[in-house]
């Protein structure tokens, strides 16, 4: 199965290197395990248009069957922050049902995940962190995929 | 499975003894077999019984050995050549995106269509997808459609159209062993056959005696290649049959020819060469728009004047960008300033309309600045940049006035709080003597009709006075607003007080009612006790009755006391409310004082 995942990632990579929707760029894909993408949000006053956010995709060997792990990362130069959103913890973990084992479907791909996150941010109206953010960030040692999020807000 | 069956029987048939003994050993138990197969000669049967039994055993052993050997071979062959996963192939022919499975993003392999929603996937893909998140069910694989999440299941033979299968099977693919060197391109439906039967790079079992190691099919005709050898260049120890693969893709010391520049490059350096050093890779000239191969770049740089100028141009570009940014900043600032000025004008103009007349009529002749307004505009313009001769007295008078204005502004500022500070920068305004020349245009822009002689104010003093007037207006407006607020506030408190007082009087009435009821109860009790006391007779009982009487009386008395205490407390509260009301009304002018005096 490992080869199926790499085959598919290879295909996605060649496609991504060709064209990507505006605001989404591939920063690097050193191997087929971990990709780094940048996204920016164009028309939401909460996010300055010149600010860019960095995401790290980690793929397991059973990738299209299993969801990739996607987190926002902080970087000093070039400056990258964690976008403020009621579903994004300040350590970069994203609470999005698309990314957990129940909501994931193998027909999704890196591009569609990026677009989903971008539109999630673009439609955001609250400049706040999820409830209990500080506590979660302090205590969480789990990997994102092992966390059972409660989707208290089904409309996002 | 079927293949193993097929290839087994010829082997068995080569050995007639084997067939015979085989049939013989089973003849008693399986008569049907005996009918179909040749029976052993009956004459030699009894005489060579012992020999035959021993031979049978030997043959049995041999058969077992052969079978296990065959199975082992088969397993090895399977290991060498696992069945081709068609989803991992590289497609030569381009294909329509509609023929692509959404899960593996390859042309469908054994496509199935989900009956529930008509979405199509490879059979293996959809099974994999469902295996991970649903447990086994006896009704066959089932789950949600990955595309539309409709609950669906995989029937025993979910329908697919033959056309679709044909379309994807006709696609041309590369041999899965292309990395080893096979250049074959075949139709997808034939790729398994190619690998199994034709491909020279498929591993098969060595034909050498007592050798079970794998060898490529194209090398199998040679004798056994499984002996040690070493690479001529890197001296790595290898088996002979692996040498070619090593030579082709691994050996670090082998020289290959770069496809771009045709120069020989060591294998180990190839990656670096392709990325960085290959002279055939073109790089853009930093100056002109031409691209040059790396080998010619230096020569070009020597001849190209643009290339020489490149660093200068780069610096120029940087500076230009900087300047542009600065200019943008400046124009934004200017915009803000202009906006501020128009705002200020808007604030100042309406009051000016009213006051201008009386101010001008009042003291226009003793304001020195007014003289300047009589000067023709071109004259005023002329003296601004040079101010050699004629500028002197103007400057002098202007300075005088400015002094006056400034000092009055200061006193004004001392008297009042913030409003003048906002307008203050406008007061010192123009300084014809120390304004540098290039700023004169800015000045015209910045202080529009307010200040130059053509403006609505004859002098800074007028300006100040008008400002003062407007401030006074503002003050009276604020005062009236304050008094109005004051009145509203006191009314509010009065209403509040009235309501509280009503409530308290209601409570007091309630308490009085309770008191009366208490009294009634007490008297009823006393009467009852007095009526009961003579029945038992004797003085002792009368004494006891009196004692009880006293006790009950005391209890009732205490209760009454408590009720009256509550009443007094209530009254106290009412007074407190009154006092509070009067205290809050101390600052008010009317109404509140007599309000405070009114008693419950
Ligand atoms: Zn598929
Ligand atoms: Zn569907
Ligand atoms: Zn081949
Ligand atoms: Zn051999
Ligand atoms: Zn070598
Ligand atoms: Zn080269
Ligand atoms: Zn050039």
From TrEMBL, chain A:
This protein's record includes keyword rRNA-binding: no
InterPro entries the record matches: Ub_conjugating_enzyme, UBC, UBQ-conjugating_enzyme/RWD
UniProt keyword annotations, A-Z: Ubl conjugation pathway
Domain UBC core residues, every copy: 4-156
CDD domains, sorted: UBCc_UBE2W
SMART domains: UBCc (SM00212)
PANTHER family: UBIQUITIN-CONJUGATING ENZYME E2 (PTHR24067)
Protein name: UBC core domain-containing protein
Source organism: Extremus antarcticus
Lineage: Eukaryota, Fungi, Dikarya, Ascomycota, Pezizomycotina
From TrEMBL, chain B:
Cross-referenced InterPro entries: Znf_RING, Znf_RING/FYVE/PHD, Znf_RING_CS, Znf_TRAF
Domain of life: Eukaryota
Residue intervals of every TRAF-type zinc finger in the record: 245-291
Keyword Zinc-finger listed: yes
Domain TRAF-type: 245-291
PANTHER family per record: TNF RECEPTOR ASSOCIATED FACTOR, TNF RECEPTOR-ASSOCIATED FACTOR 4
Protein name per its UniProtKB record: Uncharacterized protein
């Amino acid at each position: 199965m490992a080869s199926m995942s790499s085959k598919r990632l290879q295909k996605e990579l060649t496609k991504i290197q060709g064209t990507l929707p505006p605001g989404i760029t591939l920063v690097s894909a050193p191997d087929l395990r971990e990709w780094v993408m940048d996204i920016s949000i164009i028309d939401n006053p909460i996010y300055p248009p010149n600010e860019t956010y960095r995401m790290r995709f980690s793929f397991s060997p059973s990738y299209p069957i299993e969801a990739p792990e996607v987190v926002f990362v902080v970087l000093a130069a070039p400056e990258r922050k964690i976008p403020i959103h009621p579903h994004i913890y300040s350590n970069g973990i994203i609470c999005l049902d698309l990314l957990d084992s129940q909501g994931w479907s193998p027909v999704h791909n890196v591009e569609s995940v990026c677009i989903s996150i971008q539109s999630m941010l673009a439609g955001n109206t609250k400049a706040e962190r999820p409830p209990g953010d500080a506590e979660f960030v302090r205590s969480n040692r789990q990997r994102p995929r092992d966390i059972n999020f409660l989707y208290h807000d089904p409309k996002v | 499975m079927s293949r193993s069956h097929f290839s087994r029987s010829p082997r068995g048939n080569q050995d007639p003894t084997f067939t015979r003994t085989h049939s013989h050993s089973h003849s008693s138990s399986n008569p049907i077999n005996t009918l179909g197969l040749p029976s052993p000669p009956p004459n030699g049967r009894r005489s060579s019984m012992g020999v035959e039994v021993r031979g049978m055993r030997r043959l049995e052993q041999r058969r077992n050995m052969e079978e296990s050997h065959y199975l082992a071979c088969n397993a090895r062959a399977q290991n060498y050549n696992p069945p081709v996963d068609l989803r991992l192939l590289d497609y030569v022919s381009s294909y329509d995106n509609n023929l692509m499975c959404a899960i593996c993003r390859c042309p469908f392999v054994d496509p199935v269509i989900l009956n529930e929603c008509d979405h199509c996937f490879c059979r293996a893909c959809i099974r994999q997808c469902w295996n991970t998140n649903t447990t086994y069910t006896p009704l066959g694989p089932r789950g949600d459609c990955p595309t539309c999440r409709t609950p669906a299941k995989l029937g025993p033979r979910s329908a697919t159209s033959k056309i679709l299968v044909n379309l994807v099977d006709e696609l041309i693919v590369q041999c899965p062993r292309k990395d080893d060197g096979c250049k074959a391109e075949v139709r997808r439906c034939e790729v398994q056959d190619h690998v199994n039967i034709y491909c020279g790079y498929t591993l098969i079992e060595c034909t050498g005696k007592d050798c079970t190691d794998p060898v490529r099919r194209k090398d199998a005709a040679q004798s056994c290649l499984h002996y040690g050898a070493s690479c001529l260049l890197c001296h790595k120890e290898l088996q002979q049959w692996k040498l070619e693969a090593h030579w082709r893709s691994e050996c670090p010391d082998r020289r290959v020819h770069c496809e771009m520049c045709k120069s020989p490059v060591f294998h180990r350096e190839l990656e670096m060469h392709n990325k960085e050093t290959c002279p055939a890779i073109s790089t853009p000239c930093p100056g002109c728009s031409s691209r040059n191969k790396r080998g010619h770049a230096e020569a070009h740089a020597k001849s190209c004047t643009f290339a020489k100028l490149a660093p200068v141009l780069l610096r120029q570009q940087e500076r230009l960008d900087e300047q542009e940014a600065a200019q943008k900043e400046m124009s934004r600032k200017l915009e803000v300033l202009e906006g501020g000025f128009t705002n200020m004008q808007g604030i100042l103009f309406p009051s000016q309309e009213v006051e201008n007349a009386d101010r001008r009529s009042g003291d226009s002749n003793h304001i020195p600045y007014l003289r300047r307004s009589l000067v023709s505009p071109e004259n005023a313009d002329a003296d601004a940049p040079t101010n050699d001769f004629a500028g002197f007295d103007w400057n002098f008078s202007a300075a005088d006035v400015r002094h006056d204005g400034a000092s009055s502004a200061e006193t004004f500022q001392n008297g009042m709080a913030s409003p003048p500070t906002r307008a203050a920068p406008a007061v010192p305004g123009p300084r014809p003597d120390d304004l540098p020349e290039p700023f004169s245009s800015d000045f015209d822009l910045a202080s529009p009709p307010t200040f130059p002689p053509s403006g609505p104010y004859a002098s800074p003093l007028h300006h100040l006075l008008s400002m003062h007037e407007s401030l006074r207006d503002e003050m009276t407006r604020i005062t009236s607003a304050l008094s109005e607020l004051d009145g509203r506030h006191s009314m509010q408190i009065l209403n509040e007080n009235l309501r509280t007082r009503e409530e308290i009087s209601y409570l007091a009435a309630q308490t009085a009612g309770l008191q009366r009821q208490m009294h009634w109860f007490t008297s009823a009790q006393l009467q009852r006790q007095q009526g009961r006391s003579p029945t038992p007779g004797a003085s002792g009982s009368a004494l006891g009755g009196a004692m009880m009487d006293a006790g009950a009386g005391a209890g009732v008395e205490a209760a009454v006391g408590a009720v009256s205490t509550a009443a007094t407390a209530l009254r106290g509260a009412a007074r407190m409310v009154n006092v509070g009301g009067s205290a809050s009304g101390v600052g008010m002018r009317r109404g509140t004082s007599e309000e405070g005096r009114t008693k419950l």
